[in-house]
């Protein structure tokens, strides 16, 4: 709940690039082609060229009007987008608001849609895939939250009802009645939301840079929330999945091909498994272009942030995260659809690295919470140069002409190893080489293929020699490349603090 260059010239020799005199890459060297359309294919996201896509990126979410106002110190700008591209990020989870889409009953704000479309175009032109996230926290400004417009909910706080603020305000009885209105479609609230999301989907119908539309951030069950503890709530999830399908139908009517992202209900963040796509409790997902969008937060760490409890509580994070990823594995095994962790991280590097290591092991993409503009009125230094940022900026395969097998990266020294099984694709494998981890240049070695990019390129391209597995290793010239994390399963089988702003999450 929560909420935070390859440098060097190289020479080609027998399929190996060896760096010589290092040089800082210029802006021109890190330009990327426009983002191409991505779709779900089994458990993978696949681009228009037939390559498996891995997303590494950030959230940028504006929770109050006027939404998407460049220069406000939060909204991402052209300069921010250039910074993200330079550091290898290829996705942004861009917050949109039901309150902004339909500020009055039945009226779509076309000017807001234009601002959304303009931001999508700006990011996509730099090769950044945009997830449009219908964001809410605390349901509505009625309870001091954001998301649902006040006209769409009839429940109101009682006189004198205590409001402890986010996230504890989810326990307020009247807010729970408001959530019941959502799931029961009282007064047509889901219908209105569906209309708003349909208008959003129509606006971006011709924009291949949109990687998906996320139907709702961190949905709360309402009055049945206690039934979700301790083992999940199949009765509520049955109603919830029907609501997700209803909203998906609205999106599909306007945009048949855009991926639609479904989150589990937010008790997931309190250790509870989801019953989405879990027959007989809930039906299997029939739409072939649905993506699972869980979050990975640590309750002890969050308590330290929100309730100012001792940071020593974070010692329990490893157990919670292990539980979260077991739940991800269980869902993936039964649903067979892609997963992107659309929020994680709260400024604690240990919690952060745990998420990243588990995601690497499963070849699962992620979007870090949170990035706010550093080019606003006050201005801030590059946040990715700190301890947290150096975990996030990684050497990784952005697009693979094949099936991933194993991915390992050591953010301490930069040693990287990636194995995949090749398959035909219209473009080669592309590996972003971190701009932070190789101050003296890098060495790129390939077995089963060859490097085809220019010496010292930020994006290493790899062509295969045949059908045998391909292994790519990238490391500093003074390293053997063997300082790698222990292998934690196969990507084939799926086994296994805020940047630029404050440190708390969504």
TrEMBL record:
Residues 394-469 form the Glycoside hydrolase family 5 C-terminal domain. This is Cellulase family glycosylhydrolase. Residues 1-25 form the signal peptide. Belongs to the glycosyl hydrolase 5 (cellulase A) family. It holds the Pfam family Glyco_hydro_5_C. Residues 469-506 are annotated as: Disordered. It comes from the Bacteria. Residues 487-496 have a biased composition (Low complexity). Residues 497-506 have a biased composition (Gly residues). The lineage of its organism: Bacteria, Bacillati, Actinomycetota, Actinomycetes, Mycobacteriales. Residues 47-371 form the Glycoside hydrolase family domain.
């Amino acid at each position: 709940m929560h909420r935070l260059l390859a440098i060097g010239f190289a020479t080609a020799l027998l399929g190996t690039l060896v760096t010589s005199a290092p040089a800082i890459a210029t802006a021109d060297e890190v330009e990327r082609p426009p983002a191409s359309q991505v779709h779900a294919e089994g458990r993978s996201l696949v681009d228009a060229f037939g390559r498996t896509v891995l997303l590494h990126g950030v959230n940028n979410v504006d929770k109050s009007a006027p939404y998407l106002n460049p220069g406000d110190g939060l909204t991402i700008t052209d300069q921010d987008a250039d910074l993200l591209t330079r550091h290898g990020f290829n996705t942004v989870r861009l917050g949109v608001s039901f309150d902004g889409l339909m500020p009055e009953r039945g009226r779509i704000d076309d000017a807001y849609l234009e601002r959304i479309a303009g931001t999508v175009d700006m990011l996509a032109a730099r090769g950044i895939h945009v997830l449009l996230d219908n964001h809410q926290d605390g349901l509505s400004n009625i309870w001091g939250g954001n998301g649902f417009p006040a006209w769409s909910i009839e429940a109101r706080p009682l006189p004198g009802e205590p409001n402890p603020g986010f996230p504890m305000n989810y326990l307020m009885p009247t807010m729970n009645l408001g959530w019941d209105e959502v799931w029961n479609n009282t007064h047509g609230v889901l219908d209105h939301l569906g209309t708003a999301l349909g208008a959003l989907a129509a606006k971006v119908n011709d924009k291949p840079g949109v990687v998906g539309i996320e139907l709702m951030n961190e949905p709360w069950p309402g009055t049945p929330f206690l039934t979700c503890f301790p083992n999940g709530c199949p009765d509520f999830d049955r109603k919830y999945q029907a609501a997700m399908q209803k909203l998906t139908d609205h999106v599909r009517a306007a945009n048949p091909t855009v991926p639609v992202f479904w989150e589990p209900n937010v008790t997931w963040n309190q250790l509870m498994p989801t019953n989405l796509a879990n027959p007989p409790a809930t039906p299997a997902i029939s739409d072939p272009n649905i993506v699972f969008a869980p979050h990975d937060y640590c309750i002890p760490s969050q308590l330290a942030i929100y309730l100012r409890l001792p940071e020593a509580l974070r010692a329990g994070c490893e157990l919670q995260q292990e539980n979260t990823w077991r739940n991800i594995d269980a869902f993936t095994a039964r649903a067979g659809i892609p997963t992107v962790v659309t929020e994680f991280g709260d400024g604690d590097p240990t919690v952060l690295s745990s998420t990243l290591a588990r995601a690497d092991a499963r070849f699962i993409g992620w979007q870090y919470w949170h990035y706010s503009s550093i080019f606003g009125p006050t201005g801030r230094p590059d946040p990715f140069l700190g301890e947290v940022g150096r975990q996030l900026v990684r050497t990784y395969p952005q697009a693979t002409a094949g099936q991933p097998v194993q991915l390992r990266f050591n953010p301490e020294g930069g040693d990287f190893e990636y194995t995949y099984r090749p398959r035909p694709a219209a473009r080669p494998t592309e590996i972003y080489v971190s701009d932070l981890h190789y101050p003296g240049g890098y060495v790129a070695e390939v077995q089963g293929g060859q490097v085809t990019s220019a010496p010292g390129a930020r994006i290493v391209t790899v062509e295969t020699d045949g059908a045998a597995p391909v292994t790519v290793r990238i490391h500093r010239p003074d390293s053997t490349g063997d300082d790698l994390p222990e292998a934690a399963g196969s990507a084939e089988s799926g086994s296994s603090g805020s940047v630029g702003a404050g440190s708390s999450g969504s």
